[in-house]
Specification:
The complex is a heteropentamer of chains A (661), B (487), C (100), D (539) and E (168). Helix content of chain A is 71%, strand content 3%. In chain A, 60% of the residues are buried. The longest helix of chain B is centred in the middle third of the chain and has 32 residues. A two-stranded antiparallel ribbon of chain B has the order 1-2. Chain B has 487 residues and is mainly alpha-helical. Chain C starts with a strand and ends in a 13-residue tail after the last helix. In chain C, 77% of the residues lie in helices and 2% in strands. The longest helix of chain C has 31 residues. In chain C, 81% of the residues are buried. Chain E contains 6 helices and 1 strand, in the order H-H-H-H-E-H-H. Chain E is globular, with a radius of gyration of 20 Å. Chain E has 168 residues and is mostly helical. Classes of the chains: A mainly alpha (661), B mainly alpha (487), C mainly alpha (100), D mainly alpha (539), E mainly alpha (168). At the C-E interface, strand 1, helix 1, helix 2 and helix 3 of C face helix 1, helix 2, helix 3, helix 4 and strand 1 of E.
Chain lengths: 661, 487, 100, 539, 168
C-alpha cells in the first residue's frame, strides 16, 4: 500500500511547493509559480484520494492506521515522533483540506493575478497546506501542535500579506498572539496529559483513558482540567469567546486566504482537536458543558454582531465565528460526528461564500462596503448564483448541505441532558434563534449586494464578471454545498445516517446519544425539529427581504430607534477596546514604568551604581587623610600604636569576626 | 680576634654589596663614564646575589648567633639581589636623563641593598636595627636624590622625619624586649613568657616600627607622598626591596618567637583589614599613576598581612600547618616585587624628563602609541589585580588559601571585597590605555624609545610574572620546606 | 637603692615627651631634636636594664644607638638644609606639596 | 596527526590551538588587514573542524567523562591539568567553535580599526570559554573562568559603541564580584577534601565519604551559585547584560549571548548540583522563583524596549530563565530541555544579534523608531530575521521549541505551578518579537535613509543561511543532540536526587489501575513514576 | 630617702624639665640648649647607674658632636622663632590626647610590670670598659662593622644632598 506506507508524501508535496516558490519564485513568471503551487497541492489532493481508497481496503483492526517515521523529540521517558495516523476522522479532514485547499489555490491564480508578491502568496499558501495536513495527520499531540502553531504562522504571514498596511500587520500580529494565548492552555493541557498518562500518542493515551470512569459533574478532576486547557487552545484557534477577537481582523488578508484559512480549514482545527480528544471529553462532563455553553454563546453573540456589519467580509467573518460556535455546541453535547459533519458542510459553503464575496470585491474593484453595492445580480450572474446557493446552504434551507448538518446539531442539543434536564432545551433555543439571525444577516448580505438599485458610481467602478479560474471553483463548491449534506439525509426516513455511521468507529460513544435505543427517539424528534428549523430560516429570509428590498429606509429608522443597541453591536460590543484598556495598556505601562524604568534602572542598577558611588565617597575620605602635613602623619602613627596596643592588651576590643568557624 | 671564615661566608652577600658600594665611592672621582659605574653596580648586585648561594651553602648561625644563614635568608637575599639588579638596570637611563650623580646613587643603592640583606638574615634585634638603619638612611638620601626638585626633597624630609620617628619606636621596643627577656637574640627567647606585659609592649612597639616600614595602615600614611616624590627607580626599589626585607624580619620575629605568636594574629588581623581598605580606597580616585601605584602597594601590603595573620595563627601548631602560610607570604613578595618594579620602570620611562607625564591622561591611547609598553603594563596590572596566568593570581590564591586554612574566613571575605575595589582602579588604567584615544599632541610626539637596559627589566619582570603564573611549582616546593626558618 | 623601673618609667616619660614634641613642634630642626630626645630615652632604658640584669650588652647597644644617632643627624641635617634651600621655610607645615 | 586526534590530546589541542593562532596573529604586521582576517578565519574554522572530532569520542551509553587528560600541574596544593568532555559540555564546545568563525565573518568588514587586536581577543576568548567547558579541576576551571574575562572586556571596551567603557567595566566588576567568592568556596572545598579534582569530590559526596554540614553546604552552594547566576544572568543580577550587549560589537554580542551566558548555566549543572545536592534541593524553590521572575520580567521589559539590541538582550534574560528553571526542576526531561535550550538559544539569539548588527552596519543605530518598513528595501534580511525571531519565540520545527517544550514539560511533571507561570513566557516572547519585527520591517518606509538600504550581501547571506539551516536542523533532528546529552544529564539528576530512578528505564507495565485511582484526583498523579512509560529514548 | 635617690630625682626632674622646655621654647636654639640639658642629666643618671664609659660617650658624642652640629645648622639656616601655624587639625587637641594616652599607657605598663625590672639596680663597678670593648669587638663585631658603613652612608648622603650645585 504505497501511499498509506508513505503518508508523509501528502503533507510534503505542498511543503516542496512552498520551498521552491519561496526560494526561486521571485524571478519566475506567474505561470510557473501557478504550476508549482497548484501542481503540488493537486498532487497531494490526489495522493489523499489514493490514500482514502487504500484506507477503505483496510480491515477494521488495522484502524487507526499509524506510521512512525522518525522520532523528533526524545528525552527521559518522553518521546514525540514524526508519526502520522489515518482514521475515519482524518479521512474527512484530509479530503476537506486538500480538496477545498486545491480549489482555493486555483481560484487564487485568478484572484491574485495582478497582485504584487505573487510568489510569496503561493509559497505561504502551500506552507499553510503543509502545516494543516500535518495537523490533521498527526498521531500525537506534539506533532499536532506543530501543525497547530504552523498554521498559525501561515495565517500570520498571509494576514500580513499586505504588510505595507499597518492594519494588516496589526491583524496578523494580533492573530498570532491571541492564538499563542490559546496555545498556552493547549501546552499546559499536553503537560498535564503527559503527567497523567506518560504519553502523548493518541492511540496509547486514549487506550489508557478509555477504562477511566467519567468524572463527576462540577468536579475539576485531572481529565476535566486537561480538557478545559485543551479547549482553551481550541477556543484560540477556532475563535471562540473570549479569544474570537482576532478572526474579524484577519479579514485584512486576501479573500482566498479568508476563505481557506479563516473559514474552511484552520479555524476548524479547534473543533477537530476537541473531536479528536473526545475520549477525554466524554469523561469530563463539566468540560463538555463548558464547551457547549461557550460554543452556543459564541454562535449567538457573533450572529448579533453580524447583523449590523456593513463590510461584506466582516459579515462573513462573524458568521464563521458563529458557525464555529455551532460546531462546538455539537461537540459539547456529545454529537461529535454532527460537529464534524457541520465542519465539512461549512467548509463547502463558507468557502463558497468567501470566494464569491471575493469575486464580488474583485468585480467592484476592491470595494467591500455593502452600502456601496447593490443591483449586482444582473452584472455578475455566476457569482450571484453561486453565492445565493451558498447563502441558502448556510441559512439551512433544505435540501442544501447546511440544513442537514445544522439540523443534526440542533437535534442533539435538544436531546442533551448533560448538566441538567433543561440545559439541552436552552441550548436548542439559543441555537435556533442563532439560526434565525444567521439566515437574516446572510440574506441581508445578498439583498444589499445584488438587489435594489446601484449605490455606487458607475463611472469609476466597472463591474465585470471574474475569470474562469475563479468561477470554476465557485461552481464546484456550489455543487458541493448542495449535495454535501445528503450523506445525512437517510436519517429522515429512519435509515442510519451514513456520515455518522462512517465516523462511528472513531466516536464509539459510551453513553450513546447516537446508538440503538436513542435512535428511535431521535427519529421521532427528527421531523418536527427540522420543520421548526426550516420555518425559522424562512422567517429570517422574509425579514431580510422585507427590510432590505421592500422598505430600504426601514433599517436606518430601526438603527435610530435602537441607537444604543445598534451602536454596541456595530462596535462589536467594544470587546477590542475592553481588552486594550484592561490588558494591553496596563501591561505596557507596567513594563515601561515599573519594571524597566523603576525596578531595572532605578532600583537594581541604582543600587549597583549607588554602592560604587558610596565606595568612591569613602575613597575620597580616605584620600583626605593624606593631608600632606607631617604633624598629622605623626599623629596617625600614634593612633596606630594605640590600636595595636589596644588589640594586644585588651582582648575584648578584638573584632568578633575573625573566627568564622 | 678576626671572625671565622664561615661567619664571613654567611654574611658574604652583604659584605660584597658594601664592598662594591665603597668601590663605587672610591672610583667616583677618577672615572666619569656612566656605563662603567652601571656595569660596576650591576656586577656588585649580581655578585652579592651570587654570594647568596655561597651563604646558602653554609647554613647555620654566624657571628655568635647574630645572623642566621638558612633557606629563609637565602630566599630573601636572592629576592633583594634581584630587585637591586633590576633597579640598577632601570635607573641607568633615568640618571642619564635627570643628570644625577650616578656613582653616589649606585653606592647608596648597594648600601641599601646590604642593609636589607642584613635585615633578612639578622637573628638578633640590634643587628637587625643596624641593618634597618643602613637601608633606611640610604633610602632617605635616595628619596631626595633629585636635589633641585622640591617634591623630591620634601619626600626625603617626610620619609626621614617619620622614618626616624618610627625607628625610635622600634628601638624602644627592642629595649623593652631586652628588658623582658634579658636578650635581644631571637633564638634565645623560646622560654619567654608570652603574657609578660613588658614583652607584649616591646613587641607592639617593634611591630609599629616595622609596620611603618612595610606601610601597614595606619602607618602607611607616609607611603604615597614618599613614593610620589622619590625618583621613580627609587620608588621601584622602595616598593619592592625594603618592604620585602622588613617583612622578612617581621616573619622571623612573629613566626619564630613562640611568645610572639598565639594571640598576635589579632594585631595582624586589624592591620591587614585597615591596610587593605586604606590602600584600595585611597587609590580609587587617583589620577597620578605613580601615586596610584603607591596606594596599590599599600593594598598589597595588606594582602600580605592577611597571610601574616594566618602565619601567626598557625605558627603554634606543630605539624607544619603554617608552612603554606609562609609560602604564601614569600611567593607573594616575589610576584609582587617583579610586578612593581616592572610597572614603576614603565612609569619612569613614560614619565620622561623631570617626571612630567604621570597623570592618567598621559597614558590615554598608550596602546596605539606604544603597544609593547601598554601590554607589559597591563600584564603587571592584571597581576596586581590577581587574574590568572600571572604570578599575582597564584600569590592571591595562596593567601586566600592560607586565610581559609586558618579559618580566617571573614578576613578572606574582606580581602575578596578589596580585590573587587582594586579591580576597579587597575581596570581604569587599562581602560585608559586601550579604550581612550590619545590626545593630538601625544599622538604627534614620537614614541618614547626604551633603552636596552629598561627592555631587559621589562622582559625579566614580564616573563617572570607569566612564568610563575603558569609554573609556580619550583619556587613553591622550594619555600615549602618545614625548616624554612632555622630555630 | 633605686628600683630599676624608676629609670624605665623616667625613660618612658622622656620618650612620650619626645613623641609630644614631634607632634607639637613646627620647626623641622626642633622636630628632629625631639627624635633625638626619644633616642636618649631609649638609651636610658637600655642602660637601666643592663644594670638590672648585670649584662653588658645593654651598654653596647647604647653605643651603637649613639653612633646611629650621629649618622642620622648628619643625613637629617643635610636633608633639612636641602629642604630649607628649596623652600625658604623651616616650618614643617609649609612642606605639604605632596598630599592626597 | 590522525592518531593524535583519536584520543590523546584532542582536548588540549582544542583549548590551545586558538591561543597559538592568536599568538601567530600577534606576530603579524598590523596593516595587512585582509591577511589577518583570513588567518583568523582559517584558525577558527580549523578549530571548528577539530571540535567535530569530539563527536566520535563522545559516548551515548554512559554519562562519564571521555577523552580525559590528566596530568600533574602544581604539586602543592595538588592541582591537576584535568580535562574531559561529556554529553553536556560536548555540544557547548562545538557551539563555541561554531560561533567563533561566524563572528569572525560577521566582523569581517564591520570592524575596521585595530583589527589585529580584535581577532586576537576573539581567539583568546575562545580559549577561555572552551577551557571552562572542558576542565574538570576546580582550580583549572576557575582559571579559565577568569581568563575569559579580559578579552571579552576588551572586545566590548575597544570596539564597542558610545558607553562601551562603562559597559566593559561593569561587566568585569559584576563577574569578578561573583567569581571571587567562588574562589573562596573552591578553597574551602579543597580544605575539606584535599583535592581540586571534580570527579573525585563528586565521588566523595556520592559515597558519603565527604559530608558537609548543612549551613556550610548552603554557604558554599551560594558562593558558587552567585558566581554563575551573575553570568547567566539570573534576575536580579542581570543589569550588566543589557549594557554589555548594547555596547558590544556584533561579534562580542554573539559570543556573549551565544556562549558566555551558557558558562553560568553550565556551571550550575556541573558544580552546584553534583557538589551540593542537599543545598541545591533546599534552594531549588527560590531559584525557580527567580528564574520564573526572570522569564516573565525579562520578556515584559523586552516588550517595551525602544532599542532593538537591548530588546534582544532582555529576551536572553527571559530565555536563560527557562534554562535555570529546567535545571532546578531536577527532572531528566527538564534537564535535557535545559541543555538543549542552551544550545538553541546560542544559535537563535546569536542569529538575532548578527541581524541586528547587520542593520546597525547600515544605519548605525539600534533605535527601533529609526527603522520601519525595511521589508521593502531588504526582503531577504527581513525573511532571515523572521526565521530567527520565530526560532527564538519557540515555533515548532525550529530550535527554540524543543528546549522550551522539554523544560516546561519536565518541570510540569513535578511542579505544575512553576511550569504554568513559566509558560506565560511563551506568549510574551511572541508579543515582543512580533511587535518589534512589525515595527522594524512592516509598514511603509518612513525614513528617507531606509529607502535605499542594501539587502543582505553575499557574506551576510552565507552567515544567515548557515544559521537558519542549523536552526531548522536543531528543530527537526533534535534527537541527534538529546541522544548524546541524555546520559550525562541523567547522571547529574541521579546525583541530585539519587532516589529517582532513570525515568527512561521505567518498565512498561499495566499502569491502568494507577490511572483509575488517579483519575479521581490530580494529587495522586504528582509523580510520573506511577504512570508507565511505554516508549524509551531511542538509542 | 637615700642620697642616690635624691640625686636620681634631681636629675630626673632636670631631664623632664629639659624635655618640657624643649617643647615650649619658641626658638630652636633654646630648644637645642634644653636638649643638651636633658643629655647632661642623662649622663648623670648613667654615672649613677655606674656606666661611666656610656656617660662619657654621651657627653662627648651627643653633647659635644651632635648638638654642636645642630646648633651649627640652626645658625647656618639662621632659623628664627618658629611660626605658630596650626594647619593640622589632627595634631591639635586629639594629638595631644593620644600622645598623652600612649605615654601614660607605656609608663603605667612598665611601672606595673613585675619582671626583672623590679630588681634594684646597684651601682656596679662590674662594667669595666675592657669587657665592653671585648664585647664590641668580639660578640658584636658584625654590627660594629656595619655601623662603619652606616657612617660612610651618612657622609655620602651629606655630600650628595647638601653640596651646592656644581654639576654641569
Amino acid at each position: 500500500m504505497p501511499i498509506l506506507e508513505h503518508l508523509w508524501i501528502i503533507p510534503l508535496l505542498p511543503l516542496l511547493g512552498a520551498t521552491v516558490n519561496g526560494l526561486f519564485g521571485r524571478t519566475w513568471p506567474n505561470k510557473i509559480v501557478n504550476g508549482v503551487a497548484i501542481g503540488t497541492t493537486g498532487l497531494s489532493f490526489f495522493a489523499a484520494l489514493e490514500a482514502v481508497r487504500e484506507f477503505f481496503l483496510l480491515s477494521p483492526e488495522q484502524i487507526p492506521w499509524v506510521r512512525q517515521y522518525f522520532s523528533w523529540i526524545a528525552a527521559g521517558n518522553f518521546r514525540a515522533g514524526f508519526d502520522l495516523q489515518v482514521d475515519q476522522l482524518t479521512v474527512v479532514m484530509l479530503l476537506v483540506v486538500t480538496g477545498v485547499g486545491w480549489l482555493i489555490h486555483i481560484y487564487s491564480t485568478g484572484y491574485m493575478a495582478d497582485e504584487g508578491g505573487y510568489y510569496r502568496f503561493f509559497a505561504y499558501l502551500n506552507l499553510f497546506m503543509f502545516f494543516m495536513l500535518i495537523l490533521v495527520l498527526a498521531a500525537n499531540y506534539v506533532l499536532l501542535f506543530v501543525g497547530w502553531e504552523g498554521v498559525g504562522l501561515a495565517s500570520y504571514l498571509l494576514i500580513g500579506f499586505y504588510f505595507l498596511r499597518k492594519s494588516a500587520a496589526d491583524a496578523g500580529k494580533k492573530a498570532f498572539i491571541v492564538n499563542r494565548i490559546g496555545d498556552f492552555g493547549f501546552m499546559l493541557g499536553m503537560f498535564l496529559l503527559f503527567r497523567t498518562f506518560g504519553t502523548l500518542d493518541f492511540v496509547k493515551l486514549f487506550d489508557k483513558a478509555t477504562p477511566l470512569s467519567a468524572e463527576a459533574m462540577g468536579h475539576l478532576g485531572t481529565l476535566t482540567v486537561a480538557c478545559l486547557l485543551l479547549f482553551m487552545g481550541a477556543a484560540g484557534k477556532s475563535a471562540q469567546i473570549p479569544l474570537y477577537v482576532w478572526l474579524p481582523d484577519a479579514m485584512e488578508g486576501p479573500t482566498p486566504v479568508s476563505a481557506l484559512i479563516h473559514a474552511a480549514t484552520m479555524v476548524t482545527a479547534g473543533v477537530y482537536v476537541v473531536a479528536r480528544s473526545h475520549v477525554l471529553f466524554m469523561r469530563a462532563p463539566t468540560a463538555m458543558l463548558v464547551v457547549a455553553v461557550v460554543g452556543c454563546a459564541t454562535a449567538l453573540f457573533a450572529a448579533t454582531i453580524g447583523l449590523v456589519q456593513t463590510d461584506i467580509k466582516k459579515v462573513l467573518a462573524y458568521s464563521t465565528v458563529s458557525q464555529l460556535g455551532y460546531m462546538f455546541l455539537a461537540c459539547g453535547v456529545g454529537a461529535f460526528s454532527a460537529g464534524i459533519f457541520h465542519l465539512m458542510t461549512h467548509a463547502f459553503f463558507k468557502a463558497l461564500l468567501f470566494l464569491a464575496a471575493g469575486s464580488v470585491i474583485h468585480a467592484m474593484g476592491g470595494e467591500q462596503d455593502l452600502l456601496h453595492m447593490g443591483g449586482l445580480s444582473k452584472k455578475i450572474k455566476w457569482t450571484f448564483r453561486t453565492m445565493f446557493v451558498g447563502t441558502l446552504a448556510i441559512a439551512g434551507i433544505p435540501p442544501l448541505a447546511g440544513f442537514f448538518s445544522k439540523d443534526s446539531i440542533l437535534l442533539s442539543a435538544y436531546q442533551s441532558e448533560n448538566g441538567g434536564p433543561n440545559v439541552g432545551h436552552i441550548l436548542y433555543a439559543a441555537g435556533l434563534f442563532t439560526a434565525l439571525l444567521t439566515s437574516f444577516y446572510m440574506f441581508r448580505l445578498i439583498f444589499l449586494t445584488f438587489f435594489g438599485k446601484e449605490r455606487y458610481d458607475e463611472h469609476h467602478v466597472h463591474v465585470h464578471e471574474s475569470s474562469k479560474s475563479m468561477l470554476v471553483p465557485l461552481a464546484i463548491l456550489a455543487v458541493l454545498s448542495i449535495v454535501g449534506g445528503w450523506l445525512a439525509a437517510p436519517a429522515f426516513w429512519g435509515k442510519p445516517d451514513y456520515f455518522a455511521k462512517f465516523l462511528a468507529p472513531v466516536f464509539a460513544a459510551p453513553n450513546g446519544s447516537e446508538t440503538g435505543a436513542a435512535e428511535a427517539v431521535a427519529h421521532a424528534l427528527e421531523t418536527p425539529l427540522a420543520i421548526v428549523a426550516v420555518i425559522t430560516a424562512l422567517a429570517g429570509l422574509l425579514a431580510a427581504y422585507w427590510l432590505y428590498v421592500k422598505q430600504p429606509s426601514k433599517p436606518d429608522q430601526l438603527a435610530k430607534s435602537f441607537g444604543g443597541v445598534y451602536q454596541t453591536m456595530l462596535h462589536k460590543y467594544y470587546v477590542d477596546e475592553f481588552y486594550n484598556a484592561v490588558v494591553v495598556r496596563p501591561l505596557l505601562w507596567l513594563s515601561t514604568n515599573v519594571f524597566w524604568k523603576t525596578v531595572d534602572v532605578s532600583i537594581i542598577d541604582g543600587a549597583v551604581n549607588g554602592i560604587a558611588e558610596g565606595i568612591t565617597v569613602v575613597g575620597d575620605g580616605t584620600r583626605r587623610t593624606q593631608s600632606g602635613n607631617t604633624r598629622s602623619y605623626a599623629v596617625w602613627v600614634v593612633v596606630g600604636a594605640i590600636v595595636i596596643v589596644a588589640v594586644i592588651f585588651w582582648p575584648h576590643v578584638r573584632p568578633v569576626l575573625g573566627v568564622g568557624r | 680576634m678576626f671572625p671565622r671564615t664561615d661567619d664571613l661566608l654567611r654574611a658574604l652577600p652583604e659584605l660584597i654589596w658594601c664592598g662594591f658600594a665603597m668601590l663605587a665611592m672610591l672610583l667616583q672621582p677618577f672615572v666619569r663614564s656612566r656605563h662603567f659605574f652601571t656595569v660596576l653596580a650591576l656586577l656588585g648586585a649580581l655578585g652579592g646575589t651570587g654570594a647568596a648561594f655561597v651563604a646558602g651553602a653554609t647554613p647555620g648561625e654566624g657571628f655568635y648567633g647574630l645572623i642566621q644563614s638558612d633557606v629563609f635568608s637565602f630566599f630573601f637575599r636572592l629576592l633583594i639581589g634581584l630587585v637591586a639588579v633590576l633597579v640598577v638596570l632601570a635607573a641607568d637611563s633615568y640618571l642619564e636623563r635627570e643628570k644625577l650623580p650616578f656613582a653616589e646613587f649606585y653606592a647608596l643603592l648597594l648600601f641599601a641593598t646590604a642593609g636589607m640583606g642584613v635585615l633578612a638574615s639578622a637573628r638578633e634585634l640590634l643587628t637587625a636595627f643596624i641593618g634597618l638603619e643602613l637601608s633606611s638612611i640610604s633610602s632617605y638620601i635616595l628619596a631626595g636624590f633629585r636635589r633641585d626638585s622640591t617634591k623630591s626633597s620634601e619626600a626625603s624630609l617626610k620619609y626621614f622625619l617619620l622614618g626616624s620617628f618610627a625607628t625610635a619606636f622600634f628601638l624602644y621596643g627592642i629595649a623593652l624586649v631586652y628588658g623582658a627577656t634579658g636578650t635581644t637574640n631571637l633564638g634565645r627567647m623560646d622560654d619567654a613568657d608570652p603574657n609578660s606585659n613588658l614583652l607584649k609592649l616591646g613587641l607592639s612597639l617593634i611591630l609599629i616600627g616595622l609596620g611603618f616600614k612595610v606601610a601597614a595602615a595606619p602607618f602607611q600614611i607616609w607611603t604615597p607622598d614618599v613614593y610620589e616624590g622619590a625618583p621613580t627607580p627609587v620608588t621601584a626599589l622602595f616598593s619592592a626591596g625594603p618592604k620585602a626585607a622588613a617583612f622578612a624580619l617581621l616573619l622571623r620575629i612573629f613566626a619564630s618567637v613562640p611568645a610572639a605568636t598565639h594571640f598576635w594574629f589579632w594585631a595582624f588581623w586589624v592591620l591587614a583589614a585597615l591596610t587593605m581598605f586604606a590602600g584600595n580606597l585611597g587609590a580609587l580616585l587617583q589620577t597620578n599613576v605613580k601615586r596610584l601605584l603607591a596606594y596599590s602597594s599599600i593594598a598589597h601590603a595588606g594582602y600580605i598581612l592577611v597571610a601574616f595573620a594566618a602565619v601567626t595563627f598557625m605558627a603554634n601548631d606543630l605539624n607544619g600547618g603554617a608552612t603554606p602560610a609562609y609560602a604564601a607570604v614569600l611567593f607573594y613578595l616575589l610576584s609582587y616585587a617583579l610586578v612593581k618594579i616592572g610597572a614603576f620602570t614603565i612609569v619612569s620611562e613614560i614619565g620622561g624628563w623631570g617626571e612630567k607625564n604621570l597623570t592618567l591622561d598621559d597614558y590615554a591611547g598608550l596602546a596605539q602609541r606604544q603597544p609593547v609598553a601598554a601590554a607589559a603594563l597591563s600584564l603587571y596590572l592584571l597581576s596586581l589585580l590577581g587574574l590568572p596566568v600571572t604570578a599575582g593570581f597564584f600569590g592571591k590564591f595562596y593567601i586566600f588559601k592560607a586565610a581559609v586554612n586558618s579559618h580566617l574566613i571573614w578576613l578572606a571575605v574582606l580581602m575578596a571585597v578589596n580585590s573587587i575595589i582594586g579591580a576597579y582602579y587597575y581596570l581604569r588604567v587599562i581602560v585608559v590605555m586601550y579604550m581612550r584615544e590619545a590626545s593630538a599632541e601625544a599622538m604627534a610626539a614620537a614614541p618614547v624609545r626604551f633603552p636596552v637596559a629598561v627592555n631587559v627589566v621589562l622582559a625579566v619582570t614580564a616573563i617572570g610574572t607569566v612564568y610563575f603564573g603558569l609554573f609556580p611549582n619550583q619556587v613553591l616546593n622550594f619555600i615549602l620546606q618545614p625548616n624554612l626558618i632555622a630555630r | 637603692m633605686i628600683p630599676t623601673n624608676y629609670y624605665i618609667v623616667l625613660s618612658a616619660i622622656l620618650f612620650g615627651l619626645g613623641v609630644l614634641a614631634f607632634i607639637f613642634k613646627r620647626n623641622i630642626i626642633s622636630i628632629f631634636m625631639s627624635i633625638e630626645l626619644m633616642l636618649n630615652a631609649v638609651n636610658l632604658a637600655f642602660v637601666a636594664f643592663s644594670q638590672a640584669m648585670h649584662k653588658l650588652d645593654g651598654q653596647v647597644f647604647v653605643l651603637f644607638v649613639i653612633v646611629v644617632a650621629a649618622a642620622e643627624a648628619a643625613v637629617g641635617l643635610a636633608i633639612i638644609i636641602l629642604t630649607a634651600r628649596n623652600r625658604q621655610s623651616l616650618n614643617v607645615e609649609r612642606v605639604d606639596l605632596l598630599k592626597l | 596527526m590522525g592518531s593524535l586526534f583519536q584520543g590523546g590530546h584532542l582536548l588540549s589541542i582544542l583549548i590551545f590551538f586558538p591561543a597559538v593562532g592568536s599568538l601567530a596573529l600577534l606576530l603579524l604586521r598590523g596593516d595587512d588587514h585582509v591577511f589577518i582576517r583570513r588567518i583568523a578565519l582559517i584558525v577558527s574554522v580549523a578549530e571548528f573542524l577539530f571540535s567535530l572530532l569530539l563527536l566520535r569520542g563522545a559516548s551515548l551509553a554512559s554519562g562519564d567523562y571521555r577523552l580525559v587528560e590528566y596530568g600533574q600541574w602544581i604539586t602543592a596544593p595538588p592541582i591537576h591539568y584535568h580535562l574531559g568532555v561529556d554529553g553536556i559540555s560536548l555540544f557547548l564546545v562545538i557551539l563555541t567553535t561554531f560561533l567563533t568563525p561566524i563572528s569572525v565573518i560577521a566582523s569581517w568588514s564591520s570592524i575596521n580599526h585595530r583589527i589585529k587586536e580584535f581577532f586576537v581577543m576573539l581567539l583568546m576568548l575562545e580559549v577561555g570559554v572552551i577551557g571552562v567547558f572542558l576542565s574538570l579541576d576546580l582550580f583549572l576551571f576557575f582559571l579559565f573562568w577568569e581568563v575569559m574575562l579580559i578579552p571579552m572586556a576588551m572586545l566590548i571596551g575597544i570596539w564597542g559603541h558610545e558607553r562601551r567603557i562603562y559597559a566593559a567595566v561593569k561587566f568585569v566588576l559584576y563577574t569578578m564580584a561573583g567569581s571571587i567568592l567562588m574562589l573562596v568556596g573552591i578553597i574551602w572545598l579543597y580544605n575539606a577534601t584535599g583535592t581540586f579534582d571534580l570527579p573525585t569530590i563528586q565521588q566523595m559526596i556520592q559515597t558519603g565519604t565527604l559530608v558537609i554540614e548543612p549551613r556550610a553546604e548552603m554557604l558554599l552552594f551560594l558562593a558558587f551559585f552567585v558566581a554563575f547566576a551573575v553570568k547567566v544572568p539570573l534576575f536580579p543580577l542581570h543589569t550588566w547584560l543589557p549594557d554589555a550587549h548594547v555596547e558590544a560589537p556584533t561579534a562580542g554580542s554573539v559570543m556573549l549571548a551565544g556562549v558566555l551566558l551558557k558558562m553560568g548555566t553550565y556551571g550550575m549543572i556541573r558544580f552546584c548540583l553534583p557538589l551540593f545536592p542537599e543545598a541545591a534541593r533546599r534552594a531549588a524553590p527560590w531559584v525557580a522563583v527567580l528564574a520564573i521572575i526572570g522569564i516573565i520580567y525579562g520578556a515584559l521589559v523586552a516588550l517595551v524596549q525602544p532599542n532593538l539590541k537591548k530588546l534582544v538582550a532582555y529576551s536572553s534574560v527571559s530565555h536563560l530563565g527557562f534554562v535555570v528553571l529546567g535545571i532546578f526542576a531536577f527532572r531528566s526531561i527538564s534537564m535535557q530541555g535545559a541543555v538543549y535550550q542552551m544550545l538553541a538559544h546560542g544559535i537563535s539569539t546569536g542569529a538575532l544579534f548578527l541581524l541586528v548588527g547587520m542593520l546597525y552596519d547600515r544605519r548605525h543605530t539600534f533605535e527601533i523608531s529609526e527603522y520601519g518598513g525595511l521589508a521593502t528595501p531588504m526582503p531577504k534580511l527581513a525573511a532571515f530575521f523572521l526565521i530567527a525571531a520565530l526560532a527564538s519565540m519557540g515555533l515548532p520545527m525550529l530550535n527554540g521549541f524543543v528546549g522550551e517544550f522539554l523544560v516546561l514539560l519536565g518541570t510540569y511533571q513535578s511542579h505544575g505551578t512553576w511550569a504554568s507561570w513559566a509558560a506565560l513566557g511563551v506568549i510574551l516572547s511572541a508579543c515582543y518579537l512580533l511587535w518589534s519585527y512589525q515595527r522594524v520591517f512592516f509598514g511603509e518606509v518612513t525614513r528617507e535613509k531606509n529607502k535605499t538600504l542594501a539587502d543582505a550581501s553575499a557574506r551576510e547571506k552565507f552567515i544567515l543561511v548557515t544559521m537558519s539551516i542549523v536552526m531548522l536542523w536543531m528543530g527537526i533532528g533534535s534527537t541527534y543532540f538529546t541522544r548524546r546529552t541524555a546520559a550525562a544529564s541523567q547522571a547529574v539528576i541521579d546525583q541530585v536526587e539519587p532516589q529517582r530512578p532513570y525515568e527512561a528505564r521505567v518498565p512498561a507495565a499495566g499502569g491502568i489501575r494507577a490511572d483509575v485511582h488517579a483519575a479521581d484526583s490530580t494529587n495522586d498523579l504528582r509523580d510520573a513514576k506511577q504512570i508507565p512509560a511505554a516508549v524509551d529514548v531511542n538509542r | 630617702m637615700t642620697a642616690p635617690l635624691i640625686i636620681f630625682f634631681v636629675l630626673a626632674t632636670l631631664a623632664v624639665g629639659g624635655a618640657l622646655s624643649l617643647i615650649f621654647q619658641k626658638h630652636p636654639i633654646h630648644s637645642a640648649l634644653s636638649l643638651i640639658v636633658v643629655m647632661v642629666a642623662l649622663a648623670g643618671l648613667y654615672l649613677l647607674l655606674g656606666a661611666e664609659f656610656v656617660a662619657a660617650v654621651q657627653i662627648i658624642v651627643y653633647g659635644g658632636a651632635i648638638m654642636v652640629l645642630f646648633v651649627f645648622v640652626i645658625m647656618l639656616l639662621n632659623a628664627g622663632i618658629e611660626e605658630h601655624t596650626n594647619f593640622s587639625k589632627l595634631a591639635g587637641f586629639p594629638g595631644l590626647l593620644l600622645a598623652f594616652a600612649l605615654t601614660g599607657f607605656i609608663a603605667a605598663t612598665i611601672a606595673r610590670s613585675t619582671d626583672t625590672v623590679q630588681a634594684a639596680a646597684q651601682p656596679g663597678n662590674m662594667a669595666s670598659t675592657r669587657d665592653l670593648s671585648t664585647m664590641i669587638f668580639k660578640d658584636f663585631v658584625y654590627p660594629f662593622e656595619l655601623t662603619s658603613f652606616l657612617i660612610l652612608v651618612a657622609v655620602l648622603g651629606a655630600i650628595v644632598l647638601a653640596q651646592r650645585e656644581t654639576k654641569p
